[in-house]
Specification:
The complex is a heterodimer of chains A (339) and B (169). Chain A is built from 13 helices and 12 strands. Chain A has a 5-stranded antiparallel β-sheet with strand order 4-5-8-6-7. A 4-stranded antiparallel β-sheet of chain A has the order 9-10-11-12, sandwiched between helices. A 3-stranded parallel β-sheet of chain A has the order 1-3-2, with helices on one face. The radius of gyration of chain A is 20 Å and the shape is globular. With 339 residues, chain A is an alpha+beta fold. By secondary structure, chain B is an alpha+beta fold. Chain B contains 6 helices and 5 strands, in the order αββαβββαααα. The chains are: A alpha+beta (339), B alpha+beta (169). At the A-B interface, β1, α2 and α6 of A face α1, β4, α4 and α5 of B. Chain B: InterPro entries: 2Fe-2S-bd (IPR002888), 2Fe-2S-bd_dom_sf (IPR036884), 2Fe-2S_ferredoxin-like_sf (IPR036010), 2Fe-2S_ferredoxin-type (IPR001041), 2Fe2S_fd_BS (IPR006058), Aldehyde_Oxdr_Iron-Sulfur (IPR052914), Beta-grasp_dom_sf (IPR012675). Chain B: It comes from Dyadobacter linearis.
């Protein structure tokens, strides 16, 4: 790890001012990704501004609009096990609990979860080219071993995937990200927060330099009656997704009124296709309808030599997870298949 | 690439870090890049907490920080200033064993023992969280602690026994 100075911010304003004092500064929250990247010498900040003790943004509370505001500095564990999240947004709770380990979830914050870097092994290997780590150096994953890489929204520059489970849930729930920065505060719809790699894969999201996530707002509807999160991976727990699916359904009997489906492990951002959700509205909630929606969602998917299996896997995972959403009571711990 | 260490920078960067470790106040003076794990092992003489991967993947460094199980390897000690830490050395009075330690012995829940301090601190944190009731849930919530000797089945047996005892108490 490189040498750096450490400053503790008292407030968001203080953090913005300290960050603004020049140089290459990073904000520190839970540290579960940043400190690791620093240990690998992949991120080398001159200074860290510690946000853990800023006043505010450490709570979860219901908004006047009927939604829920998740403070940026609440831990992933406290969020997943918050009584209101468990009751009204169980899809989010399940998605969070499918990620990382209990210890990491006790440290990692909600804001930090959105800002995770990819776990592409070539990004982590400083000895090989990587456009995300070193723009213009090339992509080692395309000609390399690409089992964990993306099948949707890839570019010639980068086929890395965004690793978060929580964010797959947030995408399905249509969350909004609240940020404060040097030029003021703004809100970013979740779908616009993360970006596709294009020819600038070094940029993961639309956060501007110096901006701090202060909260994540959930709209009123949490799809708490019919929901499911399915995570398929190389071991049953504590591994990143090969494919994950978040589903929320609103049903009238066995007819779908509204559907939300988001995928993880397949792209540079959580993947959601509105056309598929619109297709499902008014259809019977059965494997045939979900299968047709899966075809729409995977339209345009391109596999690489070691991950082409993900295309079929994702389609089947969508169908299975939507069927699981019909019976949330029978779901198993760890976002494992229950049907 | 090797990091260049220059003495004036390091001297300037040291800062006071106050921790309460196993009930004892510790006043340390640390560089900001010292992890909580290194602060315990190298600066406090508490080597019960183990360094496995040092990257948050194995759970060997698990300690209880302000009541919650965390990975000390990914925690910067300066950021934990003022925190109360419990390590494996502090889970039971001197000369006594914690129920989990007894259960680990009874169930042969280790071979080399390297992951054991982390396993036990993690299990204490898990039981305090109160979210794991069934064996499947315990397995899921203990998945952040790897045992390369493969004692996992016995580890879960030991934890289940202590958990069932405390439920019945």
């Amino acid at each position: 790890m490189n040498n750096f100075t450490y400053k503790r911010a008292e407030s968001i304003e203080d953090a913005l001012a300290q960050n603004n004092s020049g140089g290459n500064s990073s904000y520190l929250a839970g540290g579960t990704n940043l400190v690791d990247l620093m240990k690998y010498d992949l991120t080398r900040p001159d200074s860290l501004v510690d946000l853990n003790r800023v006043d505010g943004h450490h709570e979860i509370y219901e908004t006047p609009e009927g939604g829920l505001l998740l403070g940026a500095f609440v831990t992933n564990a406290d969020t997943a096990w918050h009584p209101i999240v468990e009751e009204r947004y169980p899809l989010l709770s399940k998605a969070i609990l499918a990620g990382a380990s209990a210890q990491i979830r006790n440290m990692a914050t909600n804001g930090g979860n959105l800002l995770q870097r990819t776990r592409c092994y070539y990004f982590y290997d400083a000895n090989v080219p990587c456009n995300k780590r070193e723009p213009g150096s090339g992509c080692s994953a395309i000609p390399g071993y690409n089992r964990i890489m993306a099948i949707l929204g890839t570019s010639e520059s980068c086929i890395a995937v965004f690793p978060s489970d929580m964010c797959v849930g947030l995408a399905a729930l249509d969350a909004t990200v609240h940020v404060e920065g040097p030029t003021g505060s703004r809100s970013i719809p979740f779908a616009d927060f993360h970006r596709l790699p294009g020819d600038t894969p070094e940029i993961d999201n639309t956060l501007l330099p110096g901006e701090i996530i202060t909260g994540i707002e959930l709209p009123a509807n949490g799809f708490s009656k019919n929901y499911s999160y399915l995570k398929l991976r190389d071991r049953n727990s504590y591994a990143f997704a090969l494919v994950s699916v978040a589903t929320g359904l609103e049903l009238d009997g066995n007819v779908i009124r509204e559907a939300r489906i988001a995928l993880g492990g397949v792209a540079h951002k959580p993947w959601r296709v509105r056309e598929a959700e619109e297709f499902l509205a008014g259809k019977t909630a059965d494997a045939a309808s979900f299968g047709q929606a899966a075809e729409i969602i995977l339209r345009g998917a391109v596999g690489f030599p070691h991950n082409a299996f993900k295309i079929e896997l994702a389609k089947r995972a969508i169908v299975r997870n939507c069927m699981m959403a019909l019976d949330p009571e029978s779901q198993l711990p760890g976002a494992q298949p229950s049907v | 690439m090797l990091t260049e260490l220059t003495e004036p920078t390091t001297l300037k960067a040291s800062q006071p870090v106050n921790l309460v470790v196993n009930g004892t106040p510790l006043q340390l003076n640390l560089l900001p890049w010292v992890s909580l794990l290194d602060a315990l092992r190298d600066y406090s003489g508490l080597t019960g907490t183990k360094k496995g991967c040092d990257h948050g993947q194995c759970g060997a460094c698990t300690v209880i920080c302000d009541g919650k199980r965390v990975l000390s390897c990914l925690s910067l000690a300066v950021s934990k200033d003022g925190s109360e830490i419990t390590t494996i050395e502090g889970i039971a009075p001197e000369g006594d064993l914690h129920p989990l330690q007894k259960a680990f012995i009874e169930h042969d829940a280790f071979q080399c023992g390297y992951c054991t301090p982390g396993q036990i601190c993690s299990a204490i944190g898990m039981m305090k969280e109160g979210k794991a009731k069934t064996r499947a849930e315990v397995k899921e919530l203990m998945s952040g602690n790897l045992c390369r000797c493969g004692a996992n089945t016995n580890i879960i047996d030991a934890i289940m026994e202590v958990q069932n005892q405390s439920v019945h108490e």
